[in-house]
Amino acid sequence: MNRLWAPWRMPYITAAKTSGGCVFCEAISGSDDRESLLLARRSRAFLILNRYPYAAGHLMAVINRHVGSLPEATPDEVAGAMELVTLAVSLLTVEYRPEGFNVGLNQGRIAGAGIVDHLHLHVVPRWSGDNSFISVVGNTRVLPEDLETTYDRLKGRLGG
After folding, report:
1. DSSP per residue over 13-73, as a string?
2. What is the percent of the chain with per-residue pLDDT over 90, rounded to a whole number?
3. Domain spans of the chain, in order of start
4. pLDDT tens digits, residue range 94-134?
5. For residue 38, which of 157, 130, 154 has the smallest C-alpha distance?
6. How many of the other CB atoms lie within 10 Å of CB of 87?
7. CA distances from 100 to 75, 82, 106 (A)
8. Which of 34, 91, 126, 148 could lock 100 by a disulfide, CB 3.0 to 4.6 Å apart?
């Protein structure tokens, strides 16, 4: 049997058992945006890289306030998150030239939310052939670029 090692997943696995905090609240309250992979801060929402991406450039627009569902969010907060979704699509289009995007919100664990209690929208750039058999057969994602490189490219494109 072949093995594919993914040591970068260990912090996620161990943090899930020991941390009681919200990763999004920690990111927005922190001072090191690069360490948090936080690309842009706005008054109602922020843009952050997904630490466990489906594709290179997988971003999330996250409402600043800790709310877990659309009805809990104000219309202004939802609009702020959507403005960042638009920024994410524009940014990724220029920097990565994907052929399309998946944009979505998973509300509740049954709907696929990994972080249930803090509302966020996913922006996933897509290319022809980016879904190979390994995701299905091996339950593994193959990414052509590490997170730090992705962060530096996108942060540089944003001008900061």
Report:
1. HHHHHH--S-HHHHHHH-S-HHHHTEEEE-SSEEEEE-SS-SSTT-EEEEESS---SGGGS
2. 59
3. 21-158
4. 999 999 999 999 988 888 888 999 999 999 999 887 765 45
5. 154
6. 18
7. 27, 17, 19
8. 126
One-letter amino acid of 1: M
Q: Does the domain formed by 21-158 have CATH 3.30.428.10?
A: yes
- Contact, 120 vs 64, CB < 8 A? no
9: exposed, middle or buried (Cβ count in 10 Å: 0-12, 13-18, 19+): exposed
- The string of pLDDT tens digits covering residues 46-94 is 999 999 888 889 999 999 999 999 999 999 999 999 999 999 999 999 9
Q: Which two tokens stand for residue 23?
A: 């990763």
Active site residues: 120
The residue type of 49 is L
Cut 0.85: pTM above it: no
Distance in angstroms (rounded) separating the CA atoms of residues 72 and 24:
17
Q: Report the distance separating Cα 155 and Cα 88, nearest Å.
A: 11
Burial (CB < 10 A; 0-12, 13-18, 19+), residue 80, is: buried
Residue with token string 């594709």: 55
